Amino acid sequence: MVKSKFIVRLILVVGLLFVVVAYAPAAQASAREDRVITHVVHKGETLTSIASKYGITAKAIAKYNRISVSTKLQTNTRLKIPLPGAKATPTPTLQPLPALPPILPTTRPQNDG
Question: Which of 17, 52, 78, 102 is at a distance of 20 to 30 A from 110, taking alpha carbons?
Answer without folding.
Answer: 102
